[in-house]
Amino acid sequence: MTATGGEVSAHETDVTRYGTDRTGSSSSGTTPSATTEMPTTASVISTDIFTIVLPKTDDGTSVAIPISGNIPVYGTRYKQIHVSVNGLVSLGNNYVGYNPRHLPIGSNDTVLFAPFWTDFDIRNTSESSVFATVYQNVKNTTNITQEWRQYLEPDFNPTWALDVHWEQVCPFPAQIYDGKENTTFRLVLLTDGDRSLVAFDYDKNKALPYSLTRSPIIGLYFGSAGYSSFFNKTGTPEAVDVSSAMGNIGRIGKWLFKLYNKNDVSNATAICRDWLLQESRDEVTSPFPACPCSTSQIFADLNFQFDNVTYCADLMTPTTKGYGLHCCYNPTDTPVRGSLLTGSRGPSAFYRYHPEMYAALHQSRDIDARDACCTDDITCKQYFSRRIVSSCSSYKPPIIAVAFGSPNLQTFDELEYTFSGNEEYLMAETDTGSALYGTMEPIWIGDDPNKPNNSLTAFTTFTFVGTTNVTVSQNDKRTGIELTVAGKSLTSSFQHNSNFRKTYQNMTVYKNRDDCVVLVQTPGFSTTFCEAKGSISAMVVTPPEAVRNTRGLLGTANSNKSDDLGIRGRTVEPLPLTSTDREIYSQMTSWSVSPDTNISSSQNGSSNATDVTPLFLDEIYPNVYNDVNATDYVACLLTDTVVSKACLYNRIVLQDDVTANKTRTVADTIMNQKEVLQTQIPPLETSQSRILNVTVGTPMSLYLKHVPSVTASCNSDITATCIDNSTGVMFTWTPVSLDTVHLSFAVEDIKLGLASETVEYEIQICDCSGHGACRFDRLLSQSHPSDNFRLASCDCDIGWTGSHCELDFDGCQGAPCSSWGANCTDLIPAEQQKQKHPYKCSECPSGYRRIGIGCFDIDECYENASLCDNEPGICFNTNGNYTCRCPRESTWNGSLCISHPEQSTTVPESSTVQSPVDLCGYYNETHKCQNNGTCQLQNTNDSICVCTSGYHGDQCQLPNVASPRDGDWVVEILLPAAAAVAIAIATLCCILAVVRRRKKRGLDEESDQDSYGIRGSYAVPSSIFLPRFNTNWRQFYGSPSTWNDTAPTVHRERPLQFPITYPYDNETNSSRPANSFDDQSLDTTPEWCNNILLQEEEFNIGRPIYKTERIYPHLDDSY
Hints:
15% of the residues lie in helices and 26% in strands. With 1119 residues, it is of the alpha+beta class.
């Protein structure tokens, strides 16, 4: 029957559909998987515990039960679970199962737990109910855990549980069997998110009566992972014995199964749970690093290293809080090449721990945690909420200072000046203690070291001093760079390795694509050192907060160039910006390093011996900075109003146009880099959520605003309309299929070559094929939680099924008419909606009677009690007929049914395909063999303890009884034996007297109570209390296994037998068997015998005992 949804719980609501029972009455329920799903009610016990009650129906199932996370079964994780009235629980697809089927069922995406699968009916019943209690956030102290704790592996701590009860349910039809044939059982499902177990728990006092018309299925089906029919009587009428069989945990009627292979268990849930706990204690706090908006900015920011293959860049060194950052950019032209890819789930990523500086913590707390948490949608959201990548709008571009040429300097605050010093100088020093030093030496005329120029100098050495010292210098011939790190020369490695890279504490040194040395240090400077024809240039690119209040030739880094020309160690007013070149030179020489503390000389042994008399441009050409029409001035213009002083110096002082042009190019590049870094393109703005719920075949539209000076672009991997009207873009799209697409937008400033970050949407798409309602709150399991494109599920209309309601529901699925041999006709969806049921059965065959749309077997034995009066045995109902036979455990000897002793309860042989339990390796300490006993597996669901000498018992817990000593045998054996014989003789005399009196009266003691056809089978209970098993007792003889409470066979020619057992210890009235025939202790005096003879009707001897009810008390497993 098809189905519908209803109220799931206090937390979820399903759209109401329909379902039908075989009376033809309408009810609710179904999911896309083609079965009968009924509306349920929920009782909330607490925020973590609530109960879902199934309506009283036939063949109904619950709506999808809420799951916190997912339920793993042999490596596959399931997010939906349904409970069926018919003794089934299904994971994945909903499965009613009108009639039981032998496992496997052939569906690889469905898991079935069948504690007792048969056709139940709870309509119009007073005591029947099916309900499921959900336990969320389970702890070790939760009752459901405490109940099963002793049977669980020590390291298994469930976090979610489901407790399903089938209480007093009866077979179909309820109007006949309710109150006569009812049973109770339950299923418990436990999971920690990585491992799951399921328990079957049967009430041995409420077993379903034996019937030849029912063949219940008991077992587990794991989808593609196999199945287990652990009970060998499954699929036969004898399956009812499961409630009295010894379970695989050593308890009658209790079974527990692992749903995993230990070696294949993923610890994802445990890892994520531990990670969330750690994160709550160690919260990530601001400031957070932010990615540059485009690759243009990435290339200008030395703090990032770009990978051309992945098109992603990583923050080179950790922030002051140890954070890392992974920034990814669009490698295609749609919507804009080089724009930052953003999204709530990547691909750009914030790292709590920097990948290089804290490699182990980064792997466990960033990467492993992400992989673990993103096995589930909820925890994946929790992960990314703690690892969110800030918008590039919060990106703080670095500031730049430059020292290059002969020599030219540009401060952090963009003040440009020339300074031909001839010593080592402090270039910049921060409050953190990091410092950059530069050494200037005379240039060589004609590259001859013996011909120094006494007027012009250049930078030949730079030294960084911090946690690790780095020196970059010219070699002896000034033809290349030498590199020294921490006092160790790395020149050879740097020159011969194109991928040179070294990482130190808070510092990385590497070689860029221009063969320059790049030093990235946190906190502090990030500097590029390049060789430039006999000199070294240095470009410092660093975050503003890292160099605030700097001191040195590169200024103060406070966005105010007016105080860049200060004097070292003196609090005097800095020179005004209109000062002459000579005044600037005289002031800035105060930043020189004294010879005794010379940083560079102490490392590379160089020193300056040539006296230099600087040349000053404004003295050679007094009006140089104001003659805007001069040829040299025009040649050195960077913009209409900005001129390069370095270019002018080279053209006028050095008379070197080639060098001047190169200098101008460098200055122009620096200026453009600053503009690129400091220009932010605002992203597109929208009032809509970044999560779009779209439906195949239904148009959707978006309008995103942008600033007027940019151009918007849309990605073109889908057929859509994208119109830019200079202030915004209108996007219209009609999805045509469920094929994966990506929806993103960006804007671009074509003049600067800059792009905004990409606005990417998460798409949740639905296609119910026109036959259902979309459920965007319930995503399909094949949608990976970290994807930005996911599939929503459907609530299908009556008559339709499938993940997307694309299939005509087969109303005959599950063979609803097969149990009575009728043919089933599947109704088309329109008929299903009209008739309110999905199938039609042919006419009922002989032996069946119509009830609604179905048939039920006529119980001929119930309707006619005399059917077997002239046949052997008693009447048993069968499907469509009846048979006369003896009850179970008895046979017909030609004239009556002879009872056979009941076999002791043992674990049945297993037909398990995949064994879910290894008992010897599974029990905890309290269930292992004691006193050095050895556990041996007998089959996949049974084990025994092989005891050492001197011990016996199920767990070798009992010491053997010592043989009596020579002096004790009379007291311990002969006296009790003699007493027993005396009592037996006295009692037998009384009985024989009664028999003689009955013979004289000619009484016929045939009982009219023997409705089961047992002829002449009488037995008399012993008046001496039967012993019960108790470990405190010492048995009269033998071992526990020799005690037998089975009544002997009584023959017609010897109708009375009187077996006597005698306990060693005395027993009180209160501890005697409950079925003792009178309320007093046995009196063995002569008066007692006379009273019996005079009042024989009060002596319960001649009463027939039904062989289905044992005379002696069944030995309880607790004794």
